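Table S7 (text form). Paired inputs.
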Amino acid sequence: MTPSFDTTAAHRYFAAHCYNLTWELLKKTDRTPSDDVQLLARCYASLWHWSQRDDETDENRSIGYWQLARVWAVLGNGEQARLAAEHCLHFSQSQPPFYQGYAHEAAARAAKVAGDTEALGYHLGQAHQFAAQVEEADDRAVLESDLAELSG
């Protein structure tokens, strides 16, 4: 059965909408266990809707898996955060330094949650190297701020 609406437009809308809804919950300081379930559902929904789009790119995949790694890290699951960060690292390989830096930021965050100080140091070092290559000052500042949070 063919839906009576534009599925391409729906995937475009929900990929971005669910991504933004995920950020709303990530920023919430008093999340409940129910919020945490919604956090994961929204993030995975965003990823899925992106995967259904004809215009999905490695940049989109990198961003989606970066957000998923962040979600799992915030929820305290270092192993799941590491797995998502590995996908992010893979998809960011051919991307500009900003995305590669954030892929290493995701891996560093996962390592910190898992208590893996060796991986944390490695990925922080890599992320700082990529951050230094980011030409846009505002983008570099955002990345460096997230890295400073992990170093402290």
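Next pair, protein 2 of 2.
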Amino acid sequence: MSLRHSVARHPLLAGIAFQAALIPLALILARVADISLGEQIDWNLDAVALGALAVLPMLVLLGALASSGWGPYRALADQVRDFVRQLFRHAFPGAVLLISLLAGIGEELLVRGVLQGWLTERWSPESAILVAALIFGLAHSISRLYFVFATVIGLYLGVLYYLTGNLLVVIVTHALYDWIVIHLYLRSRDAGRRGA
């Protein structure tokens, strides 16, 4: 069985494996770049609370786009909704939480911790944040609009990390945002089914 066939047959497991693989990749790259990720994580409840509060502006942006009725956003939302439906069609309990946590941890360790951290040692913080956000946007670019949206989110997370100096804050923000949005898309799908 080919890798492509396995991914098509089990997209959720492939997504979980991919997100999980980002964690050791970030740890390896951090070691190569001589970046101590452990020193960038301050385990405390204030950081968790700040990370949870920091989700609000992201949700406001998403809500503003959703309520705008803007055609390109509606088309993108339909595309993402279909992807989420496909991904979680036969999901096991806790799958949304697991993939949200893995994405928050893996992507933030890699993009903010390693990439932005490495770039900040060489360039200005503003340039490091911008380049890391653009790479984050490119990694999520299922369309031009999604690239722009993901880049804006990447800028926000980059600034948040720069201001707090704590990866835990952006990990919580990212993971909680993903968890909420995936549930919103799944709920909107279920509501559509009931109305049909």
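The first helix runs from residue 3 to 9.
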